[in-house]
Amino acid sequence: MTITRYAMEVAAACATAAAAVLIGASSHALGIGWSDAGPESGYFPFYISVLLLLGSLANLARALAGRRRLGQPFIEPGRSGAVAVFALTLLGFAVLCAVLGMYPAIAIYLCGLTWWRGGLGAGRAAALGLGVTLFLYGAFEYAFQLPLPKGPLLNLLGVY
Question: Where is the DUF1468 domain (predicted)?
């Protein structure tokens, strides 16, 4: 049995719609209005969930309208190995995040993937991985003031 692109488009739209409804309901329980101190804690996630739901419904409508056009297989024959490699490297990234923390995992993942699969030279891949990681560190830690999990490696280096 071949899974079609149409079936996956419908499944993805339904999954993101279900996530949007779940996030919206949870946000509503936290409060989506304004208090004397400003927006309540569910305000921003609720409206993001509304946008996610609208996008999901648009994707579902587009898939239903293009059913004939989306009849080809979701994964072309002979490409399942490449999909498996992608999924396994993503799983490796998740393990690195748990073991080393977000920032070292991002640097290692981007460096390794752009060198191995992207064809960049080792120096350029390392520069890309380090550059993106430093940018994300500055953006999350300083601009957004939203610290991501550092993990034991950065804690060992004194970065908290």
Answer: 18-149
